Amino acid sequence: MRFDTIVRGGNVVTPRGTSKIDIGIVGEKIATIAPDLVAAPDTKVIDASGHHVIPGVLDVHVHLELPFCGTVSSDDYRSGTRAGARGGVTTLIDFAIPYAGDSLEMAADNWMKKAEGKALIDYTFHICITRWNEHKDQIKGMVYRGFTTFKEFMIYKSEGWQSDDRALFGTLEKMKEYGTMLLVHAESADVLDELISRHHTPELMKKYGARLHAMTRPNFVEAEAIQRVVMWSEVTGGQLYIVHMSTAEGTEIVKAAQARGVPVVAETCAQYLVLDDSVFGRDDGHLYACCPQLKKPADSERLWQGLKHGEVSVVSTDTCTFTRDQKAMWEGDWTKIPMGMPGLETLLPITYTHGVLKKRLSLEEMVTKLSTNPAKIMGLYPRKGALEVGSDADLAIIHPSSTRTVSCNTMETNADWSPYDGWDLAGFARTTLSRGDVIVEDYAVVGREGRGQWLPRSSAGLQ
Ligand code: URP
Ligand code: ZN
Ligand code: ZN
Question: Mean pLDDT throughout 418-436?
């Protein structure tokens, strides 16, 4: 067989095990995985010796160019997908959120336009249901169009995004009927609003500053909401996915629900694994405000355990980038901080350095949480998420130990800060391939803007 590209001699992680082997690529696909592949005169040979070769990462929780908190998140499909590529991400899933009065179709069209001509890596969207009465009859059409994951927020009334229990319950019924999945941002809106209003005084804001973000969101705010929506999943049988889970309590609820057969899976994000709420005491603590907020070290440890034991299935980023100027909009009032952080570029380095090198996860377990599970859960497997014959030739080549120091000055993100500035991290991609194209070479982005493709997903579950 003649190969366009051979990835030679890396430590290759496949579903059947990890070994020193070659990968032969023809066109956009993996054609062979075998030792000592023979190169034709025009075959490109990529030396991967002394490196791990893993499937391209799927970051299934990303917000690019999102109008939110009175501004627009600053990474768009150009900078965001370049950032992802540098961190070995070859697929991202964003959230198409309807603008005021828009249908689900219009939301998808708007997000398609954001990506077109800019994306370097492949992408698709979760479709956000924000007005149940209007949107409920549009869900089936979106499934036929190739969107099989939907999203509801249990908070964000002021953004016009909040769903009540009627919407959550009704959507989960439809998920059961169509064989699709509902993602939920689980926080208890009413209790959260009450706690915020109790603390929203000039005296307390002066005294506590950004620490009020954590003080008004005790763990039960997330736990109660997870418990409630898990109940709706249990009684409807609708597939549920808890996004950005941040608490030990949430992890226990998911574990117990899974044990009694509730169709629920959970994701956490890199920041909840390695950062904690002590950052809010820093002078620049407001930069770290995201939603849900960072919790305690004990929560991080429980989430790592959940990844190891299985109740946490995915690590993503919830990338929602705001610059220092945008974050400065808070002017001392924590309720006005644009919420979110950059993350695409550091997902793999953080998980590799703090998971694999710290022996919390094996290399194979990391691949399961960053690639295989996200691809399976989101309906993209085995096209994505595995180094397998017939899969897209999406892969990242990483050095096992050599580190790079995180600096927002050398990163692709439009952010002028990183939560990990100054951290030494291994696991940045020396080389990234997307559908056979080299898009990162020697740690630098070389791929062509606009080459990324929208990924339709199957509507086979529709009755
Ligand atoms: O802080 C965050 N997470 N911003 C994005 C919106 C969301 O809730 O995911
Ligand atoms: Zn959220
Ligand atoms: Zn999010």
Answer: 98
* Residues spanned by the domain of 187: 56-377
Of the bound ligands, which one is closest to the alpha carbon of residue 316? 3
Cα 33 to middle of ligand 1, angstroms: 39
The ligand placed nearest to the CA atom of residue 290 is 1
Q: Which amino acid is at 337?
A: I
- Reported for 358-363, long-range contacts at CB under 8 A and 24+ positions apart, including other chains, are 360/304, 360/307, 360/308, 361/304, 361/307, 361/308, 363/13, 363/18, 363/52, 363/54
Residues with CB under 6 A from ligand 1: 63, 185, 290-291, 318, 320, 339-340
User: What is the 33 CA–ligand 3 centroid distance (Å)?
Assistant: 36
Q: What is the pLDDT of residue 463?
A: 44
- Looking at the 3D structure of the chain, how many domains does it have? 1
**For 380, phi and psi rounded to 5 degrees?**
-120, 5
Report the CATH number that the domain containing residue 350 is assigned in CATH. Answer: 3.20.20.140
Helices then strands, counting H and E runs in the chain, come out as: 16, 21
462 pLDDT band (50/70/90 cuts)?
low
